[in-house]
Design a protein that fits this description.
Layout (H helix, E strand, L loop, with lengths): L2 H10 L6 H5 L13 E6 L3 E7 L19 H17 L8 E13 L8 E11 L3 E10 L2 E14 H7 L10
Antiparallel strand pairs: 1-2, 2-4, 3-6, 4-5, 5-6
């Protein structure tokens, strides 16, 4: 069974995904891959993922020296990547596509996320169309809400974006 079929079978069964299986779905790599493990998945509806935050994250060098805090935009990005992990498993030609942000609404940051924290990311699909999705994301540390946001994303063709230089100006969300 190849990697793509293996991932599809794991998602179909509601199973967990390790980092290698996540990398078979998402295009992100270090230092921008912000999902370490998927612990729960319900096709086209919900995903629960984990991000282990360490002092080795490159953004902590400047955010903030002596008082490291994970940037809020990266917490929202982690939610989008978790959602992308869920959604891209439904796309047969996912390696030819990118999922990009089209909107972030109602983002609220309730408490800081710091080195040593394990972030539990819960994303629920609110609306799903063939090439666009709206998701509600929440990030928890020790059972306490750290961040929440409504995220909208759209699938774009990688080759068209590269060839024409057109497409969204935002970096891939998942």
């Amino acid at each position: 069974m190849n990697d793509t079929n293996n991932v599809a079978a794991r998602v179909q069964s509601g199973g967990t995904l390790d980092i290698n299986q996540i990398q078979a779905i998402l295009p992100h790599r270090y230092p921008f891959l912000l999902v370490d493990r998927v612990v729960e998945i319900e096709r086209m509806k919900k995903i629960v993922a984990l991000k282990n935050v360490t002092i080795n994250e490159p953004f902590f060098m400047g955010h903030f020296p002596g008082t490291p805090v994970m940037p809020g935009v990266l917490i929202v990005e982690a939610m989008a990547q978790a959602g992308g992990t869920l959604l891209l498993t439904e796309i047969d030609d996912r390696h030819d596509k990118l999922m990009v942000f089209t909107g972030i609404e109602r983002a609220r940051f309730r408490r800081p996320i710091i080195p040593g924290d394990q972030v539990r990311i819960e994303v629920e699909v609110r609306a799903w169309r063939r090439i666009a999705v709206r998701m509600a994301g929440k990030a928890f540390v020790d059972g306490k809400l750290a961040c929440e946001a409504i995220i909208s994303c759209q699938l774009v063709d990688r080759s068209r974006s590269r060839a024409s230089g057109e497409g969204p100006t935002e970096s891939p969300a998942s």
